[in-house]
Amino acid sequence: MAFSTSSESDDVLSEINITPLVDVMLVLLVAFIVTIPVLNNAITVNLPKTAATQPPEPKKPVTVSVDAEGKIFVDKQEVPVAQLESELKSRHAANPDLALHLSSDEAVNYGVVAKVMASIERAGITKLAVLTQAE
Fold it and tell me: What's a single GO BP term from this record (predicted)?
């Protein structure tokens, strides 16, 4: 804050008064604190009592990666293009509910990625997620 002690200087002092801003923010904070629990507990339901059970373990998806040189990896193990389809078929036979994550380097040739996707389709895998990076 600037205070003027001499009467010689008649300059206008301009400062931002943040007190109203703080007041508004405190009112909004109190409003959110009051309304959030009300929204979460809008419907009261008495759940029935049962014996405790363990949820099924989530199955980790198989990751197929293509690096910048065009090498193909299935869960960090290098696999030649010719053997990719048979590898995926054997994994699909062991787990019919197999999920697959496909990631490829942006510098890789599209033809290699297209061959990998064709192998995935021929292996009978229907759950495929293509991984990308957010901008």
Answer: protein transport
Which CATH number belongs to the domain containing residue 89 in this structure? 3.30.420.270
DSSP 13: P
Total tally of structural domains belonging to the chain? 1
- Helix 110-122, helix 81-94: angle, nearest 10: 30
* 33-71 pLDDT per residue, tens: 888 876 665 556 666 677 877 766 677 888 899 998 889
Q: What is the DSSP string of 94-107?
A: H-TT-EEEEEE-TT
Q: Which domain holds residue 105?
A: 62-130
In the numeric block, which tokens belong to residue 63? 């990751």
Q: Check: CB of residue 84 under 8 Å from CB of residue 116.
A: yes
CB 121, CB 127: distance < 8 Å: no
